[in-house]
Amino acid sequence: MAIDNGVGNKGVLRRFINRLKSGTALGDHQPVPLIPQKIVAFMRAASLGSDPHEDNDPKDPDNQYKWAWNRAKRLWSGDAPDNTPQDLTPASKFNSVRKACTAYWTGEQWRNAWASTGMVVGMSALAAQNTVWLAQAGAEFINSFAQFAPGQNGDVKHIAESAMHLLGYGGIYVFSKDRLNKTRLDMHKSMMSWMSSEFNRAFFSERDNVQRFTHNRSEKTEADQPDKMPQRPHHSLSDSIMQASGTVVNLGADVVSTTLTTLSIGAALYSSSVPVSFFQEYGSYLNQAFPNGVIDFTLGDKGTFALSLGVGLGLLGVATPLAKKMGRNIKDAFEASQKSWANFTGSLSNLFNRGSAISAERGHEDELLILNRMQNEAITDWRKSGDTWRKYMLFSNMQDILSGKFVSIIPGGAGLISGQLTFKGFLETQGLMVGSMIAVNNFVLNSFPMYETLKVSAGRVAEVSQMLDRIHDKKAFYELSGRHDFEFSKIDADDRETLLSVRDLKLMHRYEREEAFLEAESFDLKKGSWTLIRGESGSGKSCLLRALNDLWPYGEGEIKMAEGTRAFYARQETDFDFNYTLRDLVVYGSGSDPLNARDVSELPQFSAENQDRKLVEALQHAGLGKFVDFIDEKDCRGKIWKDSLSGGQKQRLVLARILYQNPDFLLLDESNSALDTQSRIEFLETIQAYCPETTVVAVVHENGIPVNSYGEHAFDQVLKVDGGQVTLLTADEYVIEESLKQRDKCTDGEEETVGGEQQAPSSTLYRPVSAGIGISG
């Protein structure tokens, strides 16, 4: 409803509500802000945003209440992207700082989270109350010795009793603190483990997620490119999760512990408070100066409590701004140190993967200079970060001395000097004040660095989560920088002969939305067929191969595949990790394969013994039989598998994978290029012998069509890539066509070698009699 000068048209109550919403007091035509404008101006100036007006309500920009509400919502939501659908990936629940910090309590782990929180509250309450008991028992114990002063009647039994009480409360203190710390540690572990597993699920929810995640991640990429991904986006994700989860748990537990401790000690100080003569005298003076009869300025027997509250708040007011400033300095230094150490350790890790290149190019001296420079930068930033912590600890130690030895004595000392407090009461008050000061000061001093560190680590977690959300929709992500209109579907069930059908395929480069560099109007591949992709270097052969496997990002077209087809894409090099055993390297990629999945090993045909036999046979047929004794080892004679295997053996490992997994559709991208001519033929013949029903599409290193040991074509058809067009030919058609081309190139009557066919080797390899022989299992 519109409001004109605070006047509505739906009754007195409605006008009153509207005026409250608009931030005005009662009045017909003179709106009076309920909050003074100076306070509003201060709130705007103190806004965390760079623009103090960024939280204004679009329809009512002058309404300070709506501005405050919008600002509170913005700060609470953190950096969550606007209008982003929820739960795109398992990690979507962490896509803002606030959500990264609270998802453990609001997600599927809420039962564990709140149960642990209840234990933290219970242990904190016990520890808080025990602080009071410990202060009282300590005062009683010290006072029992004072009874032996001249003129006093001391009792050794009293000392023993008070000592036993003190030991008992001390035991409770140790027990409650230990249980509290263990609960914190368990919460931290549970939260960290859950967050890490959710990110792992998000990373590997689709086979090309990591490829999309690392798409266009160069630091030199223009900042305004819509699909830019940061360099090393995964950097220190595990560290950030560990820091964020630990900080959330510890900061929350500190809030609970400090609050309960302050309340328990405050209640004890209030109940044992005595008058302070200064407050009584000054209060009487104020009562005479302001005889309104409404306010009594004398505090009565609450003098020491008021003094405790005053000195505590005063010390807190002085310490808080300094702690806040130092906390920000720690955050900035921590960020700089984290980045420089990431660059240094990343380069150091990569260094040991470049040993051959460094040796061949004699780059060891240059590497030393570069590495020393990066190391010096990292150490300098680390030193600055450590120095900020040193200054902070200096400030903390000064606070401990000031609060524990001086400020805590003031309330009890005032009561003692006033003659209203016994020595035992003084000790109790001083002990309670020490406990309160320690609890509050420790919280204030630790909370700001923890909060600033939390913003960095949780912000990093949120950033990676947002990136995973960003790449979730494959089509939308790639269309930020090009055209992605591929349609993948299944071939009709009635067509039992065709494995792959391609229609109107066009492959494009990044930022090209109309012009294609490769086109295929139509072709079908029958089951069991062997197809070779031939073309000039750089013509797009590997791009076509990737497109058939749904790995090329830009273009359009329709690709149909038989239902249930198990595809295997064999690259030139095997992917290695130093944690992989030889078994892991062979079965790699079969985890989601229903015929090879390790979760069906309880079936007889998939028993562990049968799988081991199948694995050994695959290695033997691939020419790696000498390594079967190391099948469950991460290294071979002290060297990791990446260094133990030669280039040719690594490609034989690819062959072992193919034999073990026996795919329906095999794509070979120069997968035998590191082998000699004889071994390349053996590579292809082994696949033909032991995977007779597999449909193969290959890009090979040879010129022309490879032949087998009998001189016959290893491939029965060819996808010819010429001038940006893809044409399907039979092997004989391709040979004739290439022969005619080479004849036309002949000069001076000199005939060239028939380029479409490769000569067979002089020696003949063993060829299985039956094409149906396969690996057992």
Short description:
With 777 residues, the protein is an alpha/beta fold.
If you had to describe this structure to a student in words, what would you say it looks like?
By secondary structure, the chain is α/β, with parallel strands linked by helices. Among the domains are: 12-75, no CATH class; 92-149 and 157-167 and 180-214 and 235-459, ABC transporter transmembrane region fold, CATH 1.20.1560.10. It contains 22 helices and twelve strands. The protein has helices at 12-21, 37-45, 64-77, 97-106, 110-146, 156-203, 209-213, 237-271, 277-289, 303-351, 355-360, 364-407, 409-417, 423-472, 474-478, 541-548, 582-587, 608-621, 641-644, 647-661, 677-690, 731-745, and strands at residues 484-490, 498-507, 518-526, 530-535, 555-561, 567-570, 635-636, 639-640, 665-669, 695-699, 717-722, 725-730. Helix 18 crosses helix 20. The radius of gyration is 38 Å and the shape is elongated. It starts with 11 loop residues before the first helix and ends in a 32-residue tail after the last helix.
Which CATH top level class of the domain at 92-149 and 157-167 and 180-214 and 235-459 fits?
A: Mainly Alpha
Please list the strands of the largest sheet in the order they lie side by side: 6-9-10-4-11-12
Largest sheet: 6 strands, mixed
Could you say which overall geometry the principal axes of the C-alpha atoms support?
A: elongated
- Rg is 38 Å
Strand content: 5-15%
According to CATH, what is the topology of the domain at 92-149 and 157-167 and 180-214 and 235-459?
ABC transporter transmembrane region fold
Number of DSSP helices?
22
Total strands: 12
- Stretches where pLDDT is under 50 for at least 5 consecutive residues are 1-10, 23-35, 78-84, 218-223, 592-606, 750-777
Average pLDDT confidence is: 77
**Helicity range of the residues?**
40-55%
Instruction: Name the CATH superfamily classification of the domain at 92-149 and 157-167 and 180-214 and 235-459.
Output: ABC transporter type 1, transmembrane domain
